[in-house]
Specification:
The protein is of the alpha+beta class. The protein is 61% helix and 16% strand. The strands form two sheets. The chain has a five-stranded mixed β-sheet. Strands 1-2 form a two-stranded antiparallel ribbon.
Length: 335
């Protein structure tokens, strides 16, 4: 009996010891793998740390290895952003012109020729007007894209085909934002390559799922930053020029120097006479254009007036007869 009890106790003790050892080894494995993976990145290895029992991936270590500094001083002037030096400025240029012209159709044709001459293109064009009762109502708005080194010559050339009333120009420096986007693309590209390498050597389903999930996130972020970079490149390489053009009968005179009192009086009197002339011309055009409508309207008004007059006369006669009868009856009663 004692021998049986002793044997059972020995077996139980052995089972407990084996279970404890297995649990300790299983719990220690992830920490060991993670530490080895981080040590691999700290040493600058280009391979992938794998073991026979699984994969451990540390995103923070990967980014620490691949992320460059965001300071512009770490980039050179060839726009590559990869070697030491000073990064070239990334500038988005925008300009606006308000133009008046006496010959609208000619201006539109010449503007098209100018855009082709400077290697630009129309991003949008809107025309309105063509009112037959006025020769100064046609307007157009253009958004033109031209190479960034041609924006200022293009603006100057517009003054040759029209009268520039308003002009504005601005530059938006996006160097820091552009460098940040480049840095993020480089970091995410390195992480993407690392994930692909680990995915090829992964042995367990759980590791594969985790790596593919992170790879999907990296791919989405990478495409987002690449799209932003392409948008920056487009706006940097091709500047935007907005033009508002209006057809007029006389252009506004842009004085280079302040006018004297006499010049201001003469200009005001001349402008007033021209306004009167234009007003009379517009009235004559309107009157002749609507002469049929005016005749019909006057005829209707005349008929209404005649009817009202006849009605008033009938009403007056009736009232007079009533008063006359009343006076006659009163005279009879008095007699």
């Amino acid at each position: 009996m004692k021998k049986h009890i002793r044997s059972i106790a020995v077996m139980a003790l052995a089972v407990v010891l084996l279970a404890g050892c297995g649990k300790s080894e299983s719990a220690a494995y992830p920490k060991a793998v993670n530490k080895a993976y981080e040590d691999y990145y700290m040493e600058g290895s280009t391979g992938a740390m794998l073991s026979d029992t699984g994969v451990s991936y540390s995103r923070g270590a990967a980014e620490a290895k691949s992320s460059p500094t965001s300071s512009p001083s770490n980039f050179d002037s060839d726009n590559s952003g990869t070697s030491q030096g000073v990064v070239s400025r990334k500038v988005i240029k925008n300009a606006y012109l308000e133009v008046q012209t006496l010959k609208f159709d000619e201006f539109v044709a010449e503007l098209k020729a100018k855009v082709e001459e400077f290697g630009g293109y129309y991003e949008s064009a809107n025309l309105s007007g063509n009112n037959i009762y006025s020769t100064s109502s046609r307007r157009a708005n253009y958004t033109i894209r031209v190479p960034e080194d041609k924006i200022e010559p293009m603006m100057s050339s517009i003054g040759e085909i029209g009268t520039v009333i308003t002009s504005s120009y601005n530059e938006n420096d996006i160097t820091l934002a552009y460098v940040d986007v480049e840095s993020r693309i480089k970091t995410l590209t390195t992480e993407q390559e690392t994930l692909l390498g680990l995915l090829e050597k992964a042995a367990y389903l759980e590791d594969i799922i985790r790596l593919e999930q992170r790879l999907s996130e990296v791919n989405y972020e990478l495409e987002t930053y690449k799209s932003r970079q392409r948008n920056y490149d487009d706006k940097i390489s091709y500047s935007t020029l907005n033009i508002d053009v209006r057809e007029v009968q006389r252009v506004s005179i842009v004085a280079e120097e302040p006018l004297t009192l006499g010049e201001r009086i003469a200009k005001g009197f001349k402008d007033n006479m021209l306004n009167i002339k234009e007003g009379l011309e517009n009235f004559i055009v309107w009157f002749i254009s609507y002469i049929v409508n005016i005749i019909i309207f006057c005829g209707v008004v005349a008929v209404v007036v005649i009817l009202l007059v006849k009605y008033a006369k009938k009403t007056g006669k009736r009232r007079a007869n009533i008063r006359k009868e009343a006076d006659t009856d009163q005279e009879k009663s008095e007699k």
